[in-house]
Amino acid sequence: MQHEKVLIIGSGPAGLTAALYAARANLNPILIAGPQFGGQVALTHEIENYPGFPGGSGADLIDLMKEQAERFGARIEMDVVLSVDFAHGSPFRVQTGNQEYLAEALIVTSGASPRMLNVPGEKELTGRGTSYCGTCDGFFFRGKKIVVVGGGDSAIKEALFLTKFATHIDVIHRRDSLRAEAALQKRAFAHEKINFIWDTVVDEIMGTDKVNAVKLRNLKTGEVYEHPTEGVFIFVGHEPNNSLLKGALNMDVGGYVITDKHMGTNIEGVFAAGEIQDPLWKQVATSVGQGCAAAIAAEEWLSQRETVKA
What we know:
This protein has two domains: 2-113 and 238-309, FAD/NAD(P)-binding domain; 116-234, FAD/NAD(P)-binding domain, CATH 3.50.50.60. It has six helices and 17 strands. It has helices at residues 13-24, 58-71, 134-137, 153-162, 182-190, 284-309; strands at residues 2-9, 30-32, 75-77, 81-85, 92-96, 100-108, 112-114, 130-131, 145-149, 168-172, 194-197, 200-207, 211-218, 224-228, 232-234, 238-240, 270-272. The chain starts with a strand and ends with a helix.
């Protein structure tokens, strides 16, 4: 069994920042990357609003963060955490696919995953015209007419990216105005390939071997109709990746981990940062700040603990 002072779960901006700060504090942290290195940010085509990073892909930003954290001694394992024993307090027993660890402090940055619509046809046609990642799948829709579902930053960013491939994009949004930031809205409204279908939800994704239509319902008029399309890209928010944490860490009604101002959870020695505990901001910049705070708080907690022991 491998003993660690600090173990970080997750490799998005919060996790990599926590690894950087913990490494600079000589805590020799280990970061367990999880199933998608870099988290959702790594799948983002373009990052324009992170200070000091005026343009480039999310994968580029994650690579720079990884390089910086490793330069100061952070160790990154391409592994997945299978279970954590919170019941007995610190040190926490962490089982991964390849190793078992005892960690004095844990920093949970497991992030969130795309939320599904949970409508008929969605599951069956995922990968057959239904997607949750424009960066991953946009190329396959070259020359096609598609729909994007959602009205936040992610939906509009992905719609703009998908104009590189699709000939026409209908953005379907359940309200009559967007939630995306003003700069993104301006670009989307001005783009000749993007059209908006307001006050409307998707009731069904239709097709046999591949998507050929969506069944839409207007929330104001009640009208239900079929809308032909060759692809459906869904961006309606995220669900926190909290399956390892249920029954141990306190969560809000949305399943997000509750933290105090020091990023501490209800269990001493366990800290959380990034989208696993942030239902509100969900920005790279805020996740980085939270990861920084969690690492500093973990270092202070470990120092106080050692002082008491001494």
